[in-house]
Structures are given as structure tokens and as C-alpha cells.
Design brief:
The protein is of the alpha/beta class. The chain is built from 14 helices and 16 strands. Helix 5 links the parallel strand 5 and strand 6. Helix 12 packs antiparallel against helix 13. The chain is elongated and about 90 Å long. The termini are far apart. The structure holds ligand C2E and calcium ion (CA) (2 copies). The site of one calcium ion has 4 residues, from loops.
Length: about 400
């Protein structure tokens, strides 16, 4: 068994690189919706003289300590480029592979130039290489990191923030980092996501990432339950034992070469808009209520979230609330018009809200495209936005027959 010490590590690393004893294993990343392979991560393995595989935890920390980690990373990048070159030469379209770059690289002033030199030396398109930088690297000054990452991205590489959620990096910092991928750390996925508070944390992270147009990768996914939950969060890519462990190059080559194993090469941000639990919930609500209107009673305004015509008379999708009620009444049976108008009189509703009412509902007959009146239930639920004094109403309307 190799004993790594700070004294012998440099010579051992050089020798191992020389003799091809440092290799890359590949762990595929799968599209959460289609199950296709969309990329892979290269992970270093050291083969001992006895032929056993030494995991990175046994040598990465000591390489970090002795400032030799950058040597390992550049070596892994070269292995990855050589594999891609082989695939391209064989007429195959490689998928993006991410390479881990230690935070030590943030001190290399010519990092991007070196990256370009190696990748160009193998004739690999830059967008096939993803640079994974750990969250902890962000600890270096904000302006500096932003410039560092911008330079890499401007050269056409994708940048991912690795291990997000494992350390202390603030959302406020990450929002300004020009990375395009957020890799959610496996420590955030405990058990089968049955703990509600943990689910809330994850949902919020995905919501935050998608709002910032960051694509997301969840790592360490081991169970079907975790996968299902991540799908509801709109997580785009999944990496973990559930689909595949890191595998040797020969196995990886076969995997991406099997015709049945489809690979995705498109831009996932364009091809897969984020689906969130909130959106799915809304879709379900729309199934029950084809008409949903957001009303601001205080400001006398409204906008429609969904509008399925019950009537031939079209209505504006945004505008003045009192005009909406006037218009709505004209589509009602003459005997119901007054009831509808008084129920949804703006000032009467505000007064009712202030007295403690939380909803108002009415059933009226509304004329359809075919000239037939049908009973429609319209309910206003009063809600309060905690950051404003405005009184809001959400109108849910559905035909009863
Ligand atoms: P990482 O970058 O977070 O890589 C993911 C690690 O999680 C890998 O461990 C992978 O095997 C493991 N993993 C993947 N799926 C699962 C899962 O479903 N469950 C569990 N429990 N684990 C899973 P590995 O290969 O041992 O790498 C450990 C760490 O070593 C990496 O963590 C990375 O920080 C570092 N590392 C590996 N290769 C390199 C490299 O070339 N350069 C640098 N700088 N660091 C590397
Ligand atoms: Ca990584
Ligand atoms: Ca990671």
C-alpha cells in the first residue's frame, strides 16, 4: 500500500503520471426527464503498483496541501481531451465532460490560456469542457472570482459551482458569480427526502438557481425517491449511484456508444425550461379552475392567470377591476347580474375583508358560446401580501355543469 507523505508525494505523482498510473474514471450525468446521458464528470484514480485503485480522498488532500493539486488537474484534463479526440476521430459526438479544478487554480494568472492551449491542442470544441470549481474557492475576493470565471466563460467553457450547499457560501455571493451550472452537494440529499424542512431547503435552492438561469445538477442521487423529488424541483441533471457509479474509461466509451443509450448534447437551458413544484401545482389548479384572476382591490387592478372562454364576449387579460366586474356581469343571466355586481363590489369587499371575511362566493348563470346558460361558481379568496398593505383577491372560477 502506498504511503503518501508531504516528502514523497511530488516524486510519486510525477512517476505515476509518467507511467499512466493516474487515470480518469467517468461518472455519467443523466437528464432527469429523459434519462439520457447528458454529460459526465472525470474523477481521478491512482492505480497502485499492486493494481489496486486508490480513491481521490487518499491523495487529493495531500496534493492540495503540497500545492501539487494543479498538476493532477491539468493531467486529468489532458486525459479527458485525449478521450474526446479519440471519440471525434471515430466519428462520435462526445458529451460534455466536467473536470475538477481545485481552488488553487484561482492563483494561476494564466489559467484560461493554459486551458485553451490544452483543449485546442486536441482540437476539442470549448463547449464540451466544463470547469468544476468548488464552492469553497469562492472564498477568494468577490471581484477577483467574478473576473476569473468570466475569463473562462468568455473563452467558451462552461463553469459549474461544485459542492453547492456544503459550505458557507452565501446565496448573495453566488448570485453574482457568472457560472452557468450549480451542482447541488450530496450532503443536502439525506435519506429519501422525507424530511419536510430539507425538502424546503432544496426547493428553495432550485427556485433560486432557476430564477438566476443557472442549470442544476444534483449529485449523490442514490434512490428513486430522491430522483422523483428532484424532478419535481425541476433539477435538470442527475449524477449518482442510482444511475451509475464512476466507471473506467473503457466502460464509459461503451456506454456512450450503445445506440440505445441516447445522449443529449443540446443546451438544456433552452430545451428544458425549469419545471417547479409551484408550476405543477398551478397546472393542477388550472385543471379545476379554468379561470384564475389576481385582483388588487386596493389599487383597483387585475390580471388573469388563465382564461378559458365560457362566453363569446372576450375580456381583457389585465386592467381595471371595477371594469372587469361590469364586463363579467354582461355575460350573466339578466336575473343574476345585480347579484354578481354587489357580491364583487370593490369597496364592499374591502370592508368585508377588514371585518374578517376571507372569501366571497357566488353561483350565477353565464352564457356560453352555444347561447346556453350554465351555472358557474366564482369565489374570491382574500390574501394579504406581507410586504404591502394592499388587499388582494384571488378569483377562482369554474363551471358547475
Ligand atoms: P466531487 O467532485 O464532489 O465528486 C463526486 C464524488 O461523489 C465522487 O467521489 C463520486 O464517486 C461520489 N459519488 C457520486 N455519486 C455518489 C452517490 O450516489 N453516493 C455517494 N455516496 N457518493 C457518490 P470520488 O470519485 O471519490 O471523489 C471525491 C472527491 O475527490 C471529488 O468530489 C473531488 O472533490 C475530488 N476529486 C476527484 N478527482 C479530482 C480531480 O481530478 N481534481 C481535483 N481537484 N479533485 C478531484
Ligand atoms: Ca466535482
Ligand atoms: Ca461535488
Amino acid at each position: 500500500m502506498i504511503q503518501f507523505t508531504e516528502g514523497n508525494i511530488e516524486a510519486m505523482l510525477d512517476e505515476a503520471i509518467q507511467n499512466g498510473m493516474i487515470v480518469a474514471y467517468y461518472q455519467p450525468k443523466y437528464n432527469a426527464l429523459t434519462g439520457n446521458i447528458s454529460g459526465a464528470e472525470a474523477l481521478a484514480r491512482w492505480i497502485s503498483d499492486e493494481g489496486t485503485l486508490i480513491p481521490p480522498d487518499s491523495f487529493v488532500p495531500i496534493l492540495e496541501k503540497s500545492c501539487l493539486i494543479t498538476k493532477l488537474d491539468w493531467h486529468i484534463l489532458k486525459i479527458v481531451c485525449a478521450l474526446m479526440k479519440k471519440q471525434i476521430d471515430n466519428g462520435l459526438q462526445p458529451v460534455t465532460i466536467s473536470v475538477n479544478f481545485s481552488r488553487a487554480h484561482t492563483y494561476e494568472p494564466d489559467f484560461t490560456e493554459r486551458l485553451c492551449n490544452i483543449v485546442d491542442g486536441h482540437n476539442i470544441p470549448h463547449d464540451l469542457i466544463e470547469v468544476e470549481i468548488t464552492e469553497s474557492a469562492l472564498a477568494k475576493g468577490k471581484t477577483y472570482i467574478i473576473e476569473f470565471i468570466n475569463k473562462i466563460r468568455n473563452a467558451g467553457f462552461t463553469v459549474a459551482i461544485d459542492d453547492f450547499g456544503s459550505g458557507l457560501s452565501s446565496l448573495n455571493f453566488v448570485k453574482d458569480v457568472p457560472a452557468s451550472v450549480l451542482k447541488i452537494d450530496k450532503s443536502l440529499l439525506s435519506g429519501n427526502c422525507e424530511n419536510e424542512k430539507e425538502r424546503i431547503v432544496l426547493e428553495s435552492i432550485f427556485c433560486f438557481a432557476h430564477r438566476l438561469r443557472l442549470s442544476t445538477v444534483a449529485e449523490g442521487v442514490e434512490t428513486k425517491e430522491q430522483l422523483e423529488f428532484l424532478r419535481t424541483c425541476g433539477c435538470e441533471l442527475i449524477q449518482g449511484y442510482y444511475f451509475s457509479r464512476p466507471i473506467p474509461e473503457s466502460e464509459y466509451e461503451l456506454l456512450v456508444n450503445i445506440p440505445g443509450n441516447k445522449t443529449d448534447t443540446g443546451d438544456i437551458i433552452e430545451t428544458q425550461p425549469a419545471a417547479s413544484a409551484t408550476q405543477l401545482l398551478l397546472d393542477a389548479v388550472f385543471m379545476c379552475y379554468p379561470l384564475i384572476i389576481m385582483c388588487n382591490l386596493t389599487r383597483n387592478s387585475f390580471y388573469m392567470m388563465a382564461y378559458e372562454n365560457f362566453t363569446t364576449q372576450s375580456c381583457k387579460s389585465t386592467g381595471v377591476f371595477t371594469e372587469l366586474i361590469e364586463h363579467g356581469a354582461t355575460t350573466m343571466h339578466p336575473e343574476d347580474q345585480e347579484l354578481f355586481k354587489t357580491t364583487f363590489d370593490r369597496l364592499a369587499q374591502i370592508e368585508a375583508y377588514n371585518k374578517g371575511d376571507r372569501k366571497r362566493s357566488v353561483v350565477t348563470r353565464q352564457i356560453g358560446d352555444d347561447g346556453i346558460y350554465r351555472r358557474v361558481e366564482t369565489t374570491n379568496y382574500y390574501v394579504k401580501n406581507p410586504s404591502s398593505t394592499d388587499i388582494l383577491a384571488i378569483t377562482l372560477s369554474k363551471p358547475l355543469e
